[in-house]
Amino acid sequence: MAEEHQQSDARAHRIAKASLGVLLAVFGIWISVSFIPALIWAAIIAIAIDPIYARAELRWPGGRRAWLPAIARILIALLVLAPLTVAVVEAAREARTVVAWLADARANGLAQPGWVQQMPFANEISSWWQNNLATPEGTALQLDRVQGTLLGGNSAIVGRNLIRRSVVFAFTLIALFFLLRERDSFIEHLQAGGRRLLGNCGDRIGAQLVRSVRGTIDGLVLVGIGEGAVMAVVYLVSGVPHPILLGLLTAVAAMIPFGAAVMFGIASLMLIGQGAVGWAVGVFAIGMVVVGIADHFVRPVLIGGSTRLPFLWVLIGILGGVESLGLLGLFVGPATMATLFMLWRDYINGTDFSDGSPPLALRGDPPLPDCD
Fold it and tell me: pTM of the predicted model, to two decimals?
């Protein structure tokens, strides 16, 4: 009887401990939910720079607990803030010109440019222009409509979002510092927890997530930077205003599938406004060729090669992730889809890798561990 009573007490204690753990976990997530995006961003950045950071630790082992994480955090901050600073400076330089142009348009209207007659449906466009933009009253009305659409009721929302994103970015840098400083301890704890919960599958899933994130970064960020650099040269040659700034914006937009086409369209409209219709068509055509090469050849190799995921599902992960999580979804979406696809392959294969290597093993990398 005493032994049965002790077993009953032990079972009750385990249930109580598990219930308390679940309650505390839910409460902990609830109080920290605002900082979860920053923690995920810090983890993504840490995974992205880990190969370089590991070499730096080997080169300077004495700095792994202090100045190496601090330097990495500073470099990441500069990498993000430098393009923003350039954009703000360029915008400030143009603000006076834009204000003067708006004042002149309100006072005198907008004269119809000569390139309108070269456009398809030139008569219809010319008629609309004369009715809506040629007079001061018509121009003022159209500008007021645009201003109301862009700013009406949105100023407070924009301000709150800007403050929120600044806080998330600052906390991301703080979290990154501690992730890098305690890198080995974090990895050890995650591996131990994964093995305790999932067995060897924990190591397999973790390795797939890391490879997927790195492949996505290579395919989105590096390819986007390459597209921006190529198009900056095209903008410079074709005479687009502010080619460097527009090239930076193109690089950012190119990280989202089909996003770069928006920037090509803006550059083409700028050239049309200057009367360079031929250059406008050329810039848009060259941009679409660059996007086609990147999206159909380069990105499938970089992302699909790391995730072993058909690029259609990578694209679904990217677009669905952006729709659900914003910019963070660019990296979380493909990693999630790749892990699900890996588990599906393991399921249909019965985790019986009869060919001697797991179906997701990468050339030159150690094979992913089998699941028990």
Answer: 0.72
